[in-house]
């Protein structure tokens, strides 16, 4: 059994979810709100130390037709930084519509729930 952290990257907030390879059930964990990149990664470092994940899953935003855009590149860079800073394997998962699905259910901050959907998509994909 290995722990997996999921991330919904945003410029203002980063949603985080947690799950493991035994149960394959994602749960919302935290929303990181930090003013600077250093503050964001300091908070992520605390989560990495606490949960010791074997893998990080990062949502990859795309246009509905699958085309990449500015945030796609930023998310790829974020995933590369996770891998480089924490020496943990990182996987990108298509996150189209993950935030939209949650926002229809809740009107408040949804980043951790979106991270859970992204992580659950990963688990569902490896279960097949």
TrEMBL record:
PANTHER family the record matches: POLYNUCLEOTIDYL TRANSFERASE, RIBONUCLEASE H-LIKE SUPERFAMILY PROTEIN (PTHR33317)
Biological role stated in the UniProt entry: Could be a nuclease involved in processing of the 5'-end of pre-16S rRNA.
GO MF term list: hydrolase activity, acting on ester bonds; nuclease activity
Family: Belongs to the YqgF HJR family.
GO biological process entries: rRNA 5'-end processing
Span of domain YqgF/RNase H-like: 2-102
Annotated source species: Oxalicibacterium solurbis
This protein's name: Putative pre-16S rRNA nuclease
Gene Ontology CC: cytosol
Entry-linked Pfam families: RuvX
Keywords, ordered alphabetically: Cytoplasm, Hydrolase, Nuclease, Ribosome biogenesis
The EC number(s) this enzyme carries: 3.1.-.-
Cell location: Cytoplasm
Domain of life: Bacteria
Position of the signal peptide: none
